[in-house]
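Tokens for 2',5'-phosphodiesterase 12. Go.
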Amino acid sequence: MWRLPGARSALRGVRTAVERHSRAEAATETVAGAMERAVVRCVPSEPKLSLSFALADGSHKNMQRDQSEPLGRALSRIATNALKGHAKAAAAKKSRKNRPNASGGVSCAGPGPEPAAACEPVVKLYYREEAVAEDVLNVDAWQDGAVLQIGDVKYKVERNPPAFTELQLPRYIMAGFPVCPKLGVEFGDPAGSLFRWYKETKPGATEPEGGGPSSLSPSSPSPGWTETGVDERVYTPSNADIGLRLKLHCTPGNGQRFGPSRELESVCPVEAGPGTCTFDHRHLYTKKVTDDALIRTVSYNILADTYAQTEFSRTVLYPYCAPYALELDYRQNLIQKELTGYNADLICLQEVDRNVFTDSLVPALEAFGLEGVFRIKQHEGLATFYRKSKFSLLSQHDIVFHEALQSDPLHKELLEKLALYPSAQERVLQRSSVLQVSVLQSTKDSSQKICVANTHLYWHPKGGYIRLIQMAVALAHIRHVSCDLYPSIPVIFCGDFNSTPSTGMYHFVISGNIPEDHEDWTSNGEEERCNMSLTHFFKLKSACGEPAYTNYVGGFHGCLDYIFIDLNALEVEQVIPLPTHEEVTTHQALPSVSHPSDHLALVCDLKWK
């Protein structure tokens, strides 16, 4: 499609600025070659298109017009807006002339006739140097590369250029922790966009020769900011940045062209980090993404904000934890750094607040090549992330345990057994626990598929029989997905199962059966007894074994989290060591200023057999 040489020059200038760090040269090219831009957003599914441009008086116009409207009406409206803008500018100029001057007199324009009343400017739209007929509909008239003329000013029309729909920096920024902006890009993608980070200039600091803000173009960051040298989406502040605010200059793109740039500044300055964290040593084992033969898998209960920020949590559950270390803004920094440092291919998370998923986890993990899906429970839920270079999402098969138990024929026999024990049945059906099931396909070999399950079972210490029923429902559902819907695909089942290795739930998973006389059928006393025998056909193993604990709080420690794998198809290549007991108890227990959750993440590398 036809484009002006000046527009191409401007785009080359942007690329030069980023790729060669030659901001002055880019500014020269842009100013010399580019005309004003008129941005048109026109989406088939919407009845109106939007048109945005700046008038000669400096005012910015945003217009909404029906796509089915004739062009002539839109041009007439633009002319009216331009006339109003001219009138306002003239009035402002006259007001300045009549304003008292420094000597107390009135400033006059001097003798001469009053200026003639402004006429409505000529407004035309051209495409390939020919005027577009006024009866052409807006949807067809406003083409990319067209030229809008308002009086003597010409605008290059850019139809659906890449644009940010959302752009936000985290509120709390710490030295040593990655800053991952939340981005929404329309008609583009973050990978094709350009980023440049700045930090405040320290008082009295001297700018480096030729590289300071004074050499930047008028649209570049104003004096008071210096370049960090980082032109990637994620920036990790150093200790030298403590006390300084950050600025991000970013240009949305799609690999071929760029849209209007935007800038945003951090609300607060960079703060000092907590020093060594419990996961720092673990990251030494996970510096790189694994090769295609391996699947690095993480399971982690990250402690929902809805539970961490209660008075009960602060005074009873975690009284040893500094109050600021329980705040979400603080913990999110630690969670992001921990998760991104594992370079995982699969991440299964429990106790995920919806806003944490959308505002924190997605931006951070997306920047490191992962994509995620979320399943809400009540106040929080489950999240599963997968590396986009290795996997694509084929389908999702999430369930709510109590709903599936009552409505899915898969569980008819189990429901009939449970119905013999009304008290137990009532308790089971009151629970809101969910199961997240995602089927992934290898991007390298389409015949390789995997079923990834993620859950958080009922928490109460006396709820052993409820967890047994929930696990029976889960395994039956997973079998349906991995055998009936996708025949013979391997299973990875992650979660916080709230069960130690000595419990009936763990015995059931590992051995494939649970006898009707197991003590967990009376875990909440005789009144809720529900004796039954259960079996499943999977051959499962805990990939990370049976560590002494995965949950460590003031009043309890024990192993509650597991990554169960299908032994018929998968084997363990390595288990990333857990933090040492000394590291876990440095601040008495978890969570702490150096660890964001009361659980530890399980991390292991799996490989296909």
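DSSP finds 14 helices and 30 strands in the chain.
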